[in-house]
Amino acid sequence: MKLYLDWNVLSSIKNGNLKELETIIRQPEKFVIVYSTAHISDISSSYSENNNNLDNIQSDLEFISEITDDLCIFNNGKDIVIQQNDPFHLFENEIESRNLLDGFSFDKVFDTLNDNGNNTKLIEPLKELLKSFPIDNIFKDAFENPQSADMMNAIFPGLKDNPTLEGFFNSMGKVLENINDKEGYKDLKKPFKYLNINQGKLTNPNNNPFDTIKDTYKKLDIESPLEKEYMDEKHAPKWFNDLCSAYINLDMHGFHSDDVKVTEKEKKTFKNTTQDSFHAAFASTCDIYITSDKKNYQKTRAIYNEKSILTHILKPDEFIQFYHENLEKIDFITSWNKLREVMQSGNFYDISDKNNPDDYYQVHFSRFYFFGYFNRIYIFNSDTDKNSLSLMFGKELPTNCLGVFYREIKEMVKIIVDYLGTDINGKGYFELSEIDETNNWCGRIWDFGEFQYRLVQYKRYFQFYYDFSTEVL
Questions:
Q1: Is the pLDDT at 300 greater than 70, yes or no?
Q2: How far apart are CA 187 and CA 33, in angstroms?
Q3: Are 416 and 332 in contact (CB under 8 A)?
Q4: What is the Cβ-side half-sphere exposure of residue 400, based on CA atoms within 13 angstroms?
Q5: pLDDT in tens, 11-36
């Protein structure tokens, strides 16, 4: 089972707090803990060339490397992938990228292309040609319109006085500085306040905040930004962009909106909100997302509900309770007794083929993880023998699952083998050598005559079957 913890939680664990949580998650046989590039951005936020915080940063990177075994989720420029990656290397890349954006301007763009003066003859003519290139009239009209002039001057400082490509790049540099290092995000939020969204209705836990926002725009006869797609799929999958966009939209419209404040002691800017949106998106590749940030919790939960994301989002204390109820005792006997409780409750959904009277197919959705892995129970009859039934334990993978590690099922195999013994081929505990060159696993079969157990791999899914005949019941 994959866990994604925000940096606030990881930092608390590193500093000696949340002892019970740490004890629980440090069970490699049960949990795989991952980090992302958003964690690296959180850590690097305290870095500057003039401060003396390098020892703390070094310690943070060492901790995140140790607790995750360098297992990282990141955007490779096209897709979101998960693999081992050195956090120290990612930190260096983060600082290099930040240096490129610091003081962003028209001149800096061309200085970067100039390669220390080696391309001057090629770059200078192009620079002079583009320097005075006029920008689109839509910007000029917006600056001249009294209803939008103040907002345009706030969002694009200096562009009105220099409506050229040079002025646009220089303005964007100021925009990036204002929203990422100063309190410019407040200016971006101002127009949304004039919508007069009912905050009580917006934050009411019984309401869907997305519906509340859409209804507001509908009443004003304005197209909702929630209906638009602002980002292409060239640099990240659509699902990732959709989650990040939804997160920022909620924040801008006032749904548990983040504070914007820059002082000598703290810096809360648009960058913090952006990184939190990345956390929410990255976490959707995992089974459980643990966060102690109350506003991040509320926005992420709302998005997961709206987008039907299967990842559990839990606060540290909620996860501890969830663990004790659904993951702590997962041995064969406990899991089988839990199955009996489910069977007696009759809490199953009928998904049989209504056009086939002989078809029998039911499913139960569980918060309990049978054998530490499965959270679905299916009961169905055989296509060829209607007296033969199969009970199958399955797992609903995270919505944006990037793959299943055999490490995640190793303990599950051990639990079953400890109770049933070796299979019909004399195989016991799982070994990596069993995986063939196509990354497939042959599974296990235990045959007891009138019934049998089967452990099967199907594509990315792992399923545990109990086959029996109704004639022996």
A1: yes
A2: 38
A3: yes
A4: 27
A5: 999 999 999 999 999 999 999 999 99
Q: Which amino acid does the sequence have at 135?
A: I
Residue with structure tokens 């583009």?
130
Tell me the per-residue pLDDT of 170-229, one tens digit each, with 9 for 90 and over.
666 666 666 667 767 777 777 777 788 888 899 999 999 999 999 988 888 877 766 666
**Closest to 408 in 3D by CA, of 327, 297, 315, 303:** 327
CB 142 within 8 A of CB 148: yes
pLDDT class of 450 with cuts at 50, 70, 90: confident
Q: How far is the C-alpha of 200 from the C-alpha of 205, rounded, in Å? A: 10
Write down how long the chain is. Answer: 473
State the SS3 of the chain: CEEEECHHHHHHHHCCCCHHHHHHHCCCCCCEEEEEHHHHHHHHCCCCCCCCCHHHHHHHHHHHHHHHCCEEEEECCCCEEEEECCHHHHHHHHHHHHHHHCCCCHHHHHHHHCCCCCCHHHHHHHHHHHHCCECCHHHHHHHHCCCCHHHHHHHCCCCCCCCEHHHHHHHHHHHHHHHHHCCCHHHHHHHHHCCCCCHHHHHCCCCCHHHHHHHHHHHCCCCCHHHCCCCCCCCCCHHHHHHHHHHHHHHHCCCCCCCCEECCCCEECHHHHHHHHHHHHHHCCCCEEECCCHHHHHHHHHHHHHHCCCCEEECHHHHHHHHHHHCCCCCHHHHHHHHHHHHHHCCCEECCCCCCCCCCEEEEEEEEEECCCEEEEEEEECCCCCCEEEEEEECCCCCCCCCCCHHHHHHHHHHHHHHHCCCCCCCCCCCHHHCCCCCCCCCEEEECCCEEEEEEEECCEEEEEEEEEHHHC
State how far the Cα of 89 lies from the Cα of 98, in Å rounded to an integer: 14
Say which residues have a Cβ less than 8 Å from residue 86's Cβ, sequence separation at least 6: 65, 70
Residue with tokens 């029996």: 468
Distance CA 232, CA 78 (A): 11
CB atoms within 10 A of CB 16: 8
Q: Residue 166 pLDDT more than 50?
A: yes
Which residues sit opposite 377 in a β-bridge?
A: 364, 393
Report the C-alpha dihedral over residues 159, 163, 169, 173, rounded to 10 degrees.
-10
